[in-house]
Amino acid sequence: MLASPPVSRELWLLRHGEAEPGNGIPDAERALTARGDRQSTLAGQAFAAMGIEFALALTSPRVRAVATARLACAPLGIDAAEHQPLSGGFDRDEALALLEAVPADARVLVVGHEPDFSQVVHDLTGARIDLKKGGVAAVKVSGNQGELRVLMTPRELAQAAGQPRNPG
Hints:
This protein is an alpha/beta fold. The chain has a single domain, classed as 3-Layer(aba) Sandwich (Rossmann fold), CATH 3.40.50.1240. The chain has 5 helices and 6 strands. It has helices at 34-49, 63-73, 92-100, 116-125, 154-160, and strands at residues 8-15, 56-59, 81-82, 107-112, 136-142, 145-152. Strands 3-2-4-1-5-6 form a 6-stranded mixed beta sheet. β2, α2 and β3 form a beta-alpha-beta unit. The radius of gyration is 15 Å and the shape is globular. The model has no long low-confidence stretch (mean pLDDT 94).
């Protein structure tokens, strides 16, 4: 008897776009810059151009992440719900719990922050990555193990969206 292949899902981690400096503004209230707006919009356009569909989209409640999620999800016709753990402390166990909540072969988009996202990628795959602001990483997860499938900078996302120039 042949064993069934393990059920897999994909976790797509989109780091928020470039944000304004703190300069006395509480961290949770920092907004995207014009460049961050472009990065976020182009990420969503790239997802749409690549035919990527998400069963679930979640975002950190921090202003810059919510704006990134709104702009990135618009070309996909979906909305991202706020998810408090993405504000800080998002980890491997939280990522696995989110993936368990969606059907097999589904994709989940999370919008949030460093260093959490790079650590989650490392904990799932063993890979060490440099996730740029406005960049994306995708991990295919089977069981408790993952494989890094995608790592794109904002420039690469812009190219995937059909914009040959740097997004800012």
